[in-house]
Design a protein that fits this description.
It is a peripheral membrane protein. It is found in: Cell membrane. This protein is of the alpha/beta class. Helices cover 32% and strands 20% of the residues. It contains 12 helices and 11 strands. The protein has helices spanning 49-56, 83-93, 111-122, 127-140, 146-149, 159-171, 189-204, 216-222, 240-245, 250-257, 333-342, 350-353, and strands spanning 7-18, 21-33, 38-42, 65-73, 76-77, 94-97, 177-181, 208-213, 225-230, 233-239, 323-324. The strands form 2 sheets. A 7-stranded mixed sheet has the order 6-7-8-3-9-10-11, sandwiched between helices. Strands 2-1-4-5 form a 4-stranded antiparallel sheet, with helices on one face. Helix 7 (189-204) links the parallel strand 7 (177-181) and strand 8. The longest helix is centred in the middle third of the chain and has 16 residues, at 189-204. The chain is globular and about 65 Å long. It binds adenosine-5'-triphosphate. The site of adenosine-5'-triphosphate has 15 residues, from strand 1, strand 2 and helix 1. Adenosine-5'-triphosphate is lined by residues 16, 18, 23, 25, 43, 45-51, 62, 214, 280.
């Protein structure tokens, strides 16, 4: 893995001014993405996944929002880039796919025209050539009879086909980075798998991917590395295998325990994480997860730093590092996980079943 990250986000902080005062929803988030890797970002609703990526892309345009920190992409600080240069980065070097494909498609133009225009926005090619490439891309993403389908309007496509069209648009400029926010959530399972395959293909062609999801199952199928977010902060971050086989943060334990699995033991009830997600504006001074954590102790009133800890053997450095933000003693994590589970019955052993 090359040393220089493609995207390097340091101490990102996003606050909204509301009638109740300033509310911080992303609180000192740092992470990086290496060229060609797939980073899965996972966490419950409201954990700040979307807002942090929208901040990275400079798409939070409300006058009530404040974004602080550093976002380096290929060495340039995106937060300091003039608008025009930022627009060139978005769409050409960084592509985006959102849950609702209609956010990227305009209802009044044909799908082929929109992909062709996206190509022409970044490259000097004739209309005819751009259209031919758009047809080729639609065919690449599995749209049958792409030549005639290119002349259809978005409402004439199914949800899965629209998402494919948006991915075709992303593919059109061969982005170094694709940020995909819940791209499969609205789709049925078969189509979901096809869209994940397309992301893998895009990745195989050299694009790094940040995939936001609340679904640990999706992460287990596709991510090289995983960042688990809670309360606008990173709770844990590491290679997929390390996070699935040796999760270190009690919040990650909860997420993994609450994944329903086909073929797993029959559960009398699906375990859930007790308590409510932390509300923006009421982030505790210390560990954000402490109010819901069965293992909280005095030290949790102090904010834990995302770090490798003192464990040693199973952690590496750089992209291989497995970090967590928890004060529990490193050596006792495995037995503590069992202790914390014993209060819940019928909890499956997910580490053994994680995708290798
Ligand atoms: N414009 C806004 N003004 C105030 N608060 C906002 C605004 N946009 C988002 N938030 C708050 O920021 C927090 C993080 O939202 P975000 O959408 O990033 O969460 P998420 O982890 O992506 O969840 P989901 O999976 O539901 O999309 C939420 O509590 C949300 O209510």
């Amino acid at each position: 893995m090359p040393d220089q990250p493609l995207l390097d986000v340091r101490d990102l902080r996003v606050s909204f001014r509301t009638r109740r005062g300033s509310v911080t929803v992303v609180d000192g988030l740092s992470f990086s993405v290496s060229p060609g890797e797939i980073l899965g970002v996972v966490g419950e609703s409201g954990s700040g996944k979307s807002v942090s990526m929208l901040a990275v892309l400079r798409l939070l345009t409300s006058p009530n929002v404040t974004v602080e920190g550093e976002v380096r992409f290929r060495g340039r600080d995106l937060l300091a880039l003039p608008d025009k240069e930022m627009r060139a980065v978005r769409g050409r070097e960084i592509a985006m796919v959102f849950q609702d494909p209609m956010t990227a498609l305009t209802p009044v133009y044909t799908v082929g025209w929109q992909i062709a225009e996206q190509i022409r926005a970044h490259e000097k090619v004739s209309r005819k050539e751009a259209h031919a490439r758009a047809v080729g891309l639609l065919s690449d993403v599995g749209i049958p009879d792409a030549a005639s389908r290119a002349n259809a309007y978005p409402h004439e496509f199914s949800g899965g086909m629209r998402q494919r069209a948006v991915i075709a648009m992303a593919l059109s400029c061969g982005p170094a980075l694709l940020i995909a926010d819940e791209p499969t959530t609205a789709l049925d399972v078969t189509v979901q798998a096809q869209i994940l395959d397309l992301m893998r293909e895009l990745n195989a062609q050299g694009s790094a991917v940040v995939l936001i999801t609340h679904d640990m199952g999706v992460i287990s199928q596709i991510a090289d590395r995983v960042m688990v977010m809670y309360g606008g902060r990173a709770a844990e971050e590491g290679p997929r295998r390390a996070v699935f086989h040796g999760p270190r943060h009690p919040y990650t334990w909860g997420l993994l325990d609450s994944v329903p699995r086909v073929g797993g033991p029959r559960l009398r009830r699906l375990p859930t994480i007790a308590g409510m997600p932390v509300a923006p504006g009421s982030l505790p001074e210390g560990c954000a997860f402490a109010p819901r954590c069965r293992l909280r102790h005095e030290r949790c009133e102090e904010r834990p730093v995302l770090s490798i800890g003192s464990a040693g053997a199973d952690v590496g450095s750089g992209a291989d590092a497995h970090r967590d933000a928890c004060w529990l003693p490193d050596d006792d994590r495995a037995s503590l996980r069992l202790t914390s589970r014993s209060a819940a019955t019928d909890v499956p052993d997910l580490e053994r079943e994680a995708t290798p």
